[in-house]
Amino acid sequence: MAAYLVHHLDLAPQWQWLAFLGVALFQCGILLGIVLTAAGGFTWLERKVSGRIQDRLGPTRAGGRFGWLQALADGVKLITKEDLVPAEADAMLFRLAPYISFCASFAVYLALPFADGWVSQRLNTAVFFILAVAGLEVFGVILGGYASGSKWSLFGAMREAAQVVSYEVPLGLSAVVPVLVAGSMDLVTIGQMQQGWFTSWLIFHDPFTFLTFFVYLTCAVASVNRAPFDLAEAESELVAGFLTEYSGFRWSLFFMAEYASMTAVAGLAAILFFGGWNGPLPITEWLGLNAARGPAAGWAGDLLGSLNFLFKAFVGVTVMMWLRWTLPRLRIDQVMTVCLKYCIPLSATMFVGVVVWTYLLPGGLLLHPRLGEVGERTMGPEGASLDSPGQRPGYRPTLLAASPNGAQPRDANVARAPFQGSGVPKDTVSQGLRPGLSSRAPSGLSAGESTGVARKVAGTLRVPSALTRSVRSTTVIDSPILSVSNRARSGLKTRVDKPPAASSANVAQTVSGPPKEWSP
Amino acid sequence: MINWHTFFFWLFALASCGFAVAVVLANHIVRMAFYLILSLGAVAGLFFLAGADLVGAMQLMIYVGGTLVLLVFGVMLTAQGPWVTMKTGPLQLLASWLVGGSLLVLLVWAAWSVPDWKGRTINPHAEAQPTASRLGLGLTGVRVDQLQQKDPVLRRGMSGYLLPFEIVSVHLLVVLIGAAFLARAKKRAGKPTPQETHGP
Question: Which of A15, A30, B133, B134 is most deeply packed, by most CB within 10 A?
C-alpha cells in the first residue's frame, strides 16, 4: 500500500517516509475505530441482550427509541469521573495496568485479517502470535489487582492468574487443530482455504474439528473472563474483583480491553472454524467480485468479505453475552475441573483424532479434498546448481516439490498449481496476484530439468504437501515498520514471491508443466 | 529521511536495556517483575524487527507470558506482607556484582569475537525473511538452510530435532503431571475438604 502510494504520487526519496507513516497511521486509525466503536456498540448490546434475557427492556431513553446513545452517554460519564488512586495503592503500577491490558488486546488486531489480505501485518505464524499477545492481557489484571492495595482486588487477581495459566493450554491445543487441518498458521491462508460454500468451513471438515470448536469456545470465554468464568470480577462475591478500586477512564480501559479481546477471540474462531470472510454461500463468486475482474471488483469483494467476517465475530460476541445470562458462575475449583479434567483431555483427544483423520482420509470423507497427498522431500544436487547468481545464499523457500500424484483440484479445467495442493479454488490460481499464494516461473532451471533433478535426489522423508504449501507462501512484508529501510535501499523493488507480471496466461503456462519446479 | 528500522531498533534496544537496569535497581519485587515484562517485551520487539516473527511470538509466549505469570504468582503466594521489598546485604551485593559482572564481560567478549558482527557491513539487499517455515522444516529434518552442504557425512547429521524435541516435551509433561499430583490437596477419608464445608 505504501509502495503503491510512493509509486503513484512520485514522491522524492526524502519524503517517502511520509507515505509509510501515513499508511501506518491510517491502518492504526481504522483498527482503533473498529475496536472502539465495537466496544461502544457492545456495551449497548450487552445491556439490551441482558435486559431481554431477563425480561426487561434494557436502555430505552438515551438517544431515542432503542437507547442507542447509551454507549455515548456511558463514555461521557466515565471520562468526566474523577481519576482516583487509593492511598494504599502502588500508584505507578495502578495507573499503568489498564494500559497494559488495552495494548495487549489491541495488538491482537495487528495480525487478524478482516478479509482476504486485509491485515495490517501478515504473519506466517499469525495464530501463534495472536495467542501469545492475547495472553499478555492478564498482566494488566494481575498488576492492577495487586497494586490496588485492596484485598478484593488481590483476590480477583489471584483467581485471574490461576484461571488464565490453566486455560492457555487447552486454548492453544484447540487452536492447533484447525491449523493442523489447514497446514498453515497464516490466518490469510487458512481463510483462503475455506473459500466457497459453508461445507468448506473447517468446522465441518470432520467430527473432530466440530467438537474442537466447542472446546475452543469454552476456553475462549474463560480466557476473556466472561461469565461463567468471570471469577476475577465476581460482582456478587468480590465487590468488583480487580476492578474494585478503579473508576472513570481507567476502568473503561479495562472494559474496552475486555470487549476488544472478546471480538478478537470471536474473530479468530470465525477464521479458524467458520470460513473467515467466506460466507455460507459464495455470493462474491456469484457476483464476480474477485481481483481477476480488476482492482475495484476485488476491493468490493473484500469489503463484502470483511462485513461477513465482522458479522461472524459479532455473532460470536453475542453468543458470549447469551452464555453470561444462561450459565451461573463457576466456583474456582469447578473452573479448574472444567479445564484440567475436561478441556485438556478433550482437546488432546481431538488433536490425535484429527491427525488420524487427515492421515487416513486426506481427501475428506465426502467433501472436496483439501489436504493433498504427501509430497516428497527433495534435496539439492550437491547444492551448487541451486544457487542462481544474484540470489541470497541460504534459504531456498521453494525447493520442496509437490507430489506429482497429489489430489486433483475440484475443477478439472484448472491446471494443477504446485503450490495449490488441492484446496485453493480456481480464481486464486488464475489471477495469480494474491501475495503469497502465487507460484512463479522457474528461473534457474527449466521445468524438465528440475523434475529430473528432483527425482534423482528425492529423499525418503515424506512431507505433507500442506507443509510444502506453507513453505511456498512466504509472508509479504507490507508493513511500514519492518521493511521500510530495506525497501528504500533496494529501490522499492517488490518481493520475490510476488510475480512481477503474472498474468493468468503466464501462471497457467507455469502450472501446466510438470508439477515439480524450482523457483527462487 | 527517517530510517524507521534504525529508529525502532534503537527504541526497542534502549527500552530493553533500560528496563533491565531498572530490574536491578528496583527493590520492590512486583515492580521488578513489571520492568522485566517490559524488558523482555522489548526483546520480542527486536525479534519482530529482525523478521523472526516465530521467535518473537515465542519470546512473548514463553518468557513474557509463562515465566512472569509464574513469578507474579509466586510472589503473591509466598509474600507475607502487602508490599514485598528486597533488602540486600553487602555480601550478597558483592557476590552478585562479581557473578553478574563476569557474565557481562564474558558476553561482551564473545560478541566482539564474532567476525561477522564487526564493522558496519550492511547487506543492502537483505530483507527480513520469515523464519517459521525454515525452523519447522529444520525440526522435521528438512534443512533448507544447509542445502549447500557437500559433505555427505555432515549431511547425514542433519536429520532434524523432532525426536529429541518430543522426548523433552513428554518429559516436561510428566513433570507437570507429577507436580500437580504432589501438590494436590490431600483428601482424608470421611472428612470433607475445606471447600466443601465453607464454599469458595
Answer: B133
